[in-house]
Amino acid sequence: MTRRLPILGVLAAGVVAGLLFAPLFGTSAVLWPMLAVAVVAYLVEEGILRRPQLARWRVPLTLVGGVVALLAVIPGAARRPVSLWDAVTSGWRRTLESTWPATPSPDLVAFVPVLVLLACLVGARVLQRSRLLALLPAVVVAGLSQAYVTVTGLDAVLVGLALTGCFALVLVQWPSERAAWVRLVAALAAMAVGASTLGLALPTSTAAHLAKPSPPDSPTVLSNPLTEIAARLHSPDTVVFTARADGPVDRWPVIALDNFDGVTWTAAPKFQRLGRELPLDSHVTVPVRRQSADVALADWSLPWLPSQTRTLSVVDDLPLLVDPASGALLAEQKRPSQYRVTWAEPTVDSDQLASSGVDADPSSGADLGEVPVGIDDLARSIAGDVRPSFQLALVLEKYLRTNYKLATGENLPTGHGYPQLNHFLLRSKRGTSEQFAASYVVMARLLGLPARLVVGFKQPDTPSPDGTYVIRNRDVLAWPEVAVTGVGWVPLDPTGTATSKAGGGLAGAAETVRKQLPSKKEIEREHRSEPTLPAPEDPQTAHHWPGWMALVVVVAALGAMVLLWIIGVPLAKAVRRRRRRRHGTLGAWAEARDLLRDHGMRVTPAATARDLARDSDGPVSQAMTLLAGCLDRALWSGQDSDPDREFAWSAVRKAQRGLAEGRLSERIRTTLSARSLIG
């Protein structure tokens, strides 16, 4: 069994290192393929142990067996074996271009078990020459995983502990007697408890990762749906898409625009390949429920795909691109005819929403260019003494609803730059949702509200007989969204036409708050009476430990433990030797026993000096024979003095010189061995 433990350690180290890729695809997607190739590698090594002549076939047997195992274990790989080659040559790069967890397709996920297969093969081969170098392939795999996503905090400690256990299987000379096994297990258990305690004491943070590049074929120039609103309203009956959802839906966004230079609203999407599921926005802390809808496209001129603000996943046979910041969806190559989208809908009651503040860290731009004086003065007059809050967002919305008119029919106004907004707000007071939404977002940002402009479609009030909603050009809409603390982006409706009669959802909660909104004077009076909240702590000056600092602490702690071991073990032995010299010959006998134990010799409690002399050879046997005579005279002579004490200690030194004639590595291991100190 001791011959197989190093092999198991090398294979286990490769699997543990490969598990560091789990955040990319999910644990189950990488675990089973890696276990499959590890089992193949072990079976090959077991065959070589039984029949050494098979060693020349180690490489082909391991590679062929590993490929067959991957084709059998990875779903879909057997139907397209060339996907394994695609994964090796380009899967690593396309995984970096995808959201995580990525779709575990064979042409992506297979590069991880292939890396583990190579690490197991090379490690098992090198193990015949050097145990230490046999661990290098697993270390390389672990290093490659950290180029994708870096583990921090407790996860880093647990991974380090697991790798340490694997390394111990390879490097430690395993004992054969039962007592030594008990002491070894106790030492490993103490190390595990200490490492776990250290990990719990360390601060945790979001794992760091490399900046994700956009796919090379992602589009760079796309039409702006905001500029197409008036044109779509001129052909109102054209069907754009149909949707059938399992819950109430208020509107269907296609893109969020958050950059404004005074002339044009734009977005700077950073597209990535859509993986298996998108993470929920970290700004959303309220409970959410999952909703799904089936969408079928009819208007192929629309470049963007209708979705929802907090999209989680999209089920479709064709690859899609997504901008994780805005949730905008785009076909990578061919547009799908239909797809199923799943999103997270916050569940918040109207009272909680009414008392909520605005998010201080939204993902929206703040630069508005050179704002006309008239627009700035209008925004200040609307807000009065109302502090930035969701109530202020509704006050601004109510002002636009009350004092401005939605344009219909022919001669619809177009444009959303400052000249058009200035004319809309201060002169005509008539516009489409394009002018309403753009004006709202500009004034909201002037008042300290984090806001962005969204273009999409409102859902009709009445579905078809089969429950499907038909969305047409007449339903095109632009609306503002405000970032609310704990809720995320909340859609508003300054035109008064977007809220669906179906109710429910976040828009339904906002409508309830809208109906219960006090007058502006009451809100001002309430805000004046409330104490001013202290300013939030600046995250740049707040004391926190970043992820890399936790890793530094772990490495420093491990380094301190190693240094303490290197210095402490020889120092403890020196102190023990000094104390034993006071006991003369008996102390020399105890020192000789511990010296032999540190060199790996089995020394039972009943063993005598002559027994150890017979089990040894050369200078060590001679020294034990001399020490046996000293012990006889010290124990049975009846003298109170100990005349042979110096002679006994000289025998110990002779045994030590005899044991030191071995290799340098053995002398170092003996010097640092704590076997005689722990039992």
UniProtKB/TrEMBL annotation:
<feature type="transmembrane region" description="Helical">
    <location>
        <begin position="548"/>
        <end position="572"/>
    </location>
</feature>
<dbReference type="Pfam" id="PF11992">
    <property type="entry name" value="TgpA_N"/>
</dbReference>
<feature type="compositionally biased region" description="Basic and acidic residues">
    <location>
        <begin position="519"/>
        <end position="530"/>
    </location>
</feature>
<feature type="transmembrane region" description="Helical">
    <location>
        <begin position="181"/>
        <end position="202"/>
    </location>
</feature>
<feature type="transmembrane region" description="Helical">
    <location>
        <begin position="61"/>
        <end position="78"/>
    </location>
</feature>
<feature type="domain" description="Transglutaminase-like">
    <location>
        <begin position="425"/>
        <end position="496"/>
    </location>
</feature>
<feature type="transmembrane region" description="Helical">
    <location>
        <begin position="7"/>
        <end position="25"/>
    </location>
</feature>
<dbReference type="InterPro" id="IPR021878">
    <property type="entry name" value="TgpA_N"/>
</dbReference>
<dbReference type="InterPro" id="IPR002931">
    <property type="entry name" value="Transglutaminase-like"/>
</dbReference>
<keyword id="KW-0472">Membrane</keyword>
<keyword id="KW-0812">Transmembrane</keyword>
<keyword id="KW-1133">Transmembrane helix</keyword>
<feature type="transmembrane region" description="Helical">
    <location>
        <begin position="132"/>
        <end position="150"/>
    </location>
</feature>
<dbReference type="Pfam" id="PF01841">
    <property type="entry name" value="Transglut_core"/>
</dbReference>
<dbReference type="InterPro" id="IPR052901">
    <property type="entry name" value="Bact_TGase-like"/>
</dbReference>
<feature type="transmembrane region" description="Helical">
    <location>
        <begin position="156"/>
        <end position="174"/>
    </location>
</feature>
<feature type="transmembrane region" description="Helical">
    <location>
        <begin position="108"/>
        <end position="127"/>
    </location>
</feature>
<feature type="transmembrane region" description="Helical">
    <location>
        <begin position="31"/>
        <end position="49"/>
    </location>
</feature>
<feature type="region of interest" description="Disordered">
    <location>
        <begin position="500"/>
        <end position="541"/>
    </location>
</feature>
<dbReference type="InterPro" id="IPR038765">
    <property type="entry name" value="Papain-like_cys_pep_sf"/>
</dbReference>
<protein>
    <submittedName>
        <fullName>Transglutaminase</fullName>
    </submittedName>
</protein>
